[in-house]
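Ticket #4471: complex job returned nothing on first submit. Input attached below:
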Amino acid sequence: MDNNIALKVNNVGVRFNMSAEKVDSMKEYAIKLFRRELRYNEFWALKEVSFQVKKGQRVGILGLNGAGKSTLLKVIAGVLKATEGSVTKNGNIVPLLELGAGFDKEYTGAENIYLYGAVLGYSKSFIKEKYNEIVEFSELGDFINVPLKNYSSGMKARLGFSIATVVEPEILILDEVLSVGDAKFRKKSEKKIKDMFDKKITVLFVSHSLAQVRSLCDRAIIIEKGRLVAQGDSETICNLYEQRLNK
Amino acid sequence: MKRIFSNFNKYRYLLGELVKKDIKLKYRNSVLGLLWTLLEPLLTMIVLTIVFTTLMGHDTPNFPVFVLCGRLLYSYFSNGTKLALKSIRRNSAMIRKVYVPKYIYPLASTLSGFVTFMISLSVLVVVAVVQNIKPTWHIFEAIIPMLTLLILTVGTGFILATLGVFFRDTEYLWGVILMLIMYASAIFYNPSKILASNNAWILKYNPLFGIIQNFRNAILGQPMNTKYFLYSATFSVVVLIVGVFMFYKKQDKFVLYI
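Support reply: We reran it on our side without changes. The output follows.
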């Protein structure tokens, strides 16, 4: 692959089988199979989506709810497998999609740093090295040795954010997580993300705020009903999106 | 193939963390902690010994050790497969949000069960010493049934984990099957009468029976039964291959069902 390209999404399609009723026991399955009642409604959440992201580009992804933005991010992050097409990545991806998805509530904050770090694919030595930095950034103090079930949701989010952003990613995926915790921490986290942006990393950014996309991104794409309908520089695309909204 | 190995290498640390987590959390917040692993088989052994030596007389030499061997091995198989069955659903929050190779979950469940099993073996050592059983060099052969059991449990775990995602009643069905397997594994009775009868197949076709018998032989200083070994080892390897294949074929669909 061309070295200048960070991400290549090639003709990606994702199909969901939405069965009219959920069949989740062997008995039902056998009966339905016997009566030939196993029917599925096909639903393409994404279809024929192709685009390329060059290294250092910041791409805003625009679209209404249910357009397929999250599905697209999940395919890029590797959580969902595309039914057709392929995604090629050049560099390590840090998805700031769901902070703390690997947390265990019985574990203390400290133990969760190692667990969540492992989930994100970090090595043990790396986490050890960065441990203090994570604790410091999360501002949890003595709470770090308390089981997570006693944390407030803001504290969990702070810890999740601190662990996920401790690496310097080559590709960053953001799904409207620019607001974490209280006003003070929010400022800090926004600054951290800004710093990452300034380091010329590649960014995929989903947002409903056109102002944010205009100020942060240099390119943008619009997704509508699972199809990529427009791509170009962010100013043009944002204007186009506004026009389509007002129609 | 190379990609799979480098991927495994990357997530080996996560596998270790998950195994550690299972074991740590199982006993945290309980007063006796890890002691439960030792106490539970010991208590069942005592009760089973009292009941069955009274019922059947002393027809089995070293009955406490005999029962304990069977029970420990069966418990591992039963707990390990049950944990693996639920592993995908239990970790659904993670699977839906971050990419982690999915085989990590059932594998971690069966491996953490194996660690607990190894710890619980210390009860067997104590009981064997109390019963004055002299170890012979056959004791080293115990590693063979233990490894066979590990392969069988991991393989069954993969099959059940896959089925468990699509069918919620797998759990209940497996509970029933496990009970049948328990009665057909000669855990708390002497198998010789059944083996001599027309119903010998109920034991002979059960790989767990062969594994348990060979483990007992090793502990009690008897030579290994080659026929049992060959059958159970072949059975286990086939189960593992089927399990890995099933899991591999269906894993991309898991996220749509959990």
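Chain B has one domain: 22-257. Closing as resolved unless it happens again.
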